[in-house]
Amino acid sequence: MGEKEKKLRFDTKLIHGGTSPGPSGATKTPIVQASAFAYDTAEELEDIFRGRAVGQVYTRIGNPTVDTLEKRLAAIEDGIAAVATSSGMAAITTSVMAVVRSGDEVLSSSSLFGGTYSLFHVTLANFGIETRFVDPVDLAAVEAGINDKTRLIFVETIGNPKMDVPDIAAFAAIAKKHGIPLMVDATVSTPYLARSKELGADIVVHSTSKYINGTANSIGGAIIDAGSFNWQSPKFPHFEQFFRKYRSFAFTARVRKLIHKDFGACAAPLNSFLLGEGLETLALRMERHCSNALQVARFLQAHEKVTWVNYPGLDDSPFYEVAKRQFNGRFGGLLTFGLTDKAAAFRVINNLRLAKNLANIGDTKTLVIHPASTICADYTPEVKALMGVSEEQVRVSVGIEDIEDILEDFAAALEEA
Ligand SMILES: *Cc1c(COP(=O)(O)O)cnc(C)c1O
Question: Region (Disordered): which ranges (predicted)?
Fold first, then answer.
């Protein structure tokens, strides 16, 4: 589509951006369920390995179906390139490992998805990569957390389950001032709410398993290179060879030609097809997720058995203003609320008929979970407090069902609790 594509609006780009016609005019990306790709001559394959010609070799390195998904994701995030991975955690691990080396430090928001917290706190620490955790709302603490060893700043657009909304543009300004790349996990906001590159993210990561897939039928992840960071820096000598050859594509080149290839957390062709199907309806679904979530939040706030509601779209939320500005008046599909105690939270979850009790977000279906006893059960009480996890808390990923059915489900569940 080239130049013409740039003029497309976001909702149209979800459907047409980065796509190319399939064989015989097929309007769908073919699922190339193949591990390897054959060439007639030894010379052709040598040319591809040497980088003198472009071609598929082996699905861990590249696959036409995965390639199409990558082009589409790059188009909707306005990135220069994207790499699809087997999961959101694979995207985070691969992209972080591409930036940092042993002895380096990561400065991360303390309000994190559980897997990312574990990666930083335990796994990377075991490889000599320390992470400093800071409250993402306290920008003075963010800046004070940077030192000579800091090589990456990591933040989520909406903390889960804390529901805090950091000011991404302010983070970007700090990162830029110190010559450190900003990596943003935009899973919870999705590209529909936040244009991460415009806000100043250098690298955007997603768990595409959630809202992008939208119907909970495949796990996937994505790394999008905004092309904005200057990797020709004494802080990043390990990017030198990639910068020399690939210039602004140095990050993607290091990911693709080294870290992603070596770790091997590649996306599967069938999953990439399904994720691409989900992408087409992202805007429509998010619109409904957002409007339903706001109505659920208001309903819960007015309910006598509910002690508190945390949703950035409520105008008494401390994050209302920044979320409104950053997300263009939309606030996402995720909220948390409190009952009197854990037993009451369990009763409400057990009473719900429509909402499913499971560990996921971003499905068409309304989902609930008690974070303290499940996804955050391994945290110490101090970490739970830091992450905004409490015993009386229920997290809701509001689905796109008819709002009346969702509200009736919660009304009945609270009534009986
Ligand atoms: C789910 C999630 C991840 C991890 O993604 P997987 O696809 O489950 O590996 C990372 N970040 C956030 C914010 C998530 O919600």
Answer: 1-27
Q: Please tell me if the CB atom of residue 208 comes closer than 6 angstroms to any atom of ligand 1.
A: no
In this prediction the pTM is: 0.97
Taking the centre of ligand 1 as the mean of its atom positions, its distance from the CA of residue 369, in whole angstroms, is 15
Query: Is the CA virtual torsion 335, 338, 342, 344 positive or negative?
Result: negative
For residue 210, report the distance from its CA to the centre of ligand 1, in Å. Answer: 7
pLDDT beyond 60 at 319:
yes
Q: Look at residue 7 in the predicted model and tell me its pLDDT.
A: 82
Residue 344, pLDDT above cutoff 70: yes
Domains of the chain (ranges; CATH) run 3-279 (3.40.640.10), 282-416 (3.90.1150.10)
93 lines ligand 1 (CB under 6 A): no
| CA 208 to ligand 1: nearest atom | 7
CB of 88 closer than 6 angstroms to any ligand 1 atom: yes
Instruction: Tell me: cis bond preceding 161? Omega within 30 of 0 counts.
Output: yes
Q: Which atom of ligand 1 is nearest the CA belonging to 220? A: 7
pLDDT value, residue 6:
62
Over pLDDT 70: what percentage of the chain? 99
* Among 82, 103, 319, residue whose Cα is nearest residue 193: 319
Name the nearest CA neighbour of 408 among 351, 370, 368, 369. 351
Residue 113 has pLDDT above 60, yes or no: yes
